[in-house]
Write a structure and sequence with these properties.
Elements: H1 4-15, H2 21-24, H3 26-33, H4 37-46, H5 51-88, H6 99-105, H7 115-142, E1 146-147, E2 150-151
Antiparallel strand pairs: 1-2
Helix pairs in contact: 3-5, 5-6, 5-7, 6-7
Length: 152
């Protein structure tokens, strides 16, 4: 029989096909492992809550923190992919400003001016690191098990 928990898991797996469906469904499955998910849904249905309210009040708080981490990870992965594709010549065309284009153009003068490669490379590293740290900090702040980043 297809319970609501299995249906939710399948919806999450179908929505996030990038190989991270288990990561996203983790918040929902964590409630199921504690055997609280079905009870909470049944209580909410008995009290007359609609599907949108159940999703907004019961499911979303458990899923929002993994989603913020995944969003920051995907965004930083997109920055690295764009820079590497532009460096290889398969990304943004050459006249456009891109970190990959800057790194590719600095290959010719690397022996005379190494800072032309060090600065854009460091900018990519700092940007990706700061995005990942920002996502982790936002997850800590928004986690329902903590109050403003401090464990209850």
């Amino acid at each position: 029989m297809l319970t609501e928990a299995k249906l939710r898991k399948r919806v999450y797996e179908a929505t996030f096909k990038r190989g991270s469906s288990l990561f996203n469904a983790g918040g929902v499955l964590e409630m199921e492992e504690k055997n609280q998910g079905d009870r909470m849904l049944i209580r909410a249905k008995v009290q007359g809550s609609g599907n949108f309210r159940i999703l907004w009040k019961l499911i979303l708080p458990g899923v929002i923190s993994p989603l913020t981490v995944q969003a920051s990870y995907i965004f930083s992965q997109a920055i690295i992919s764009e820079a590497s594709l532009s460096f290889l010549g398969a990304g943004v065309p050459a006249p456009a400003a891109s970190w990959g284009n800057m790194l590719e153009a600095s290959k010719a003068v690397l022996s005379k001016a190494p800072w032309t490669m060090i600065v854009p490379g460091a900018a990519v590293i700092i940007c990706v690191l700061s995005l990942n740290l920002f996502g982790d900090g936002l997850r800590d702040f928004m986690d329902p098990r903590t109050k403003g980043g401090v464990k209850k």
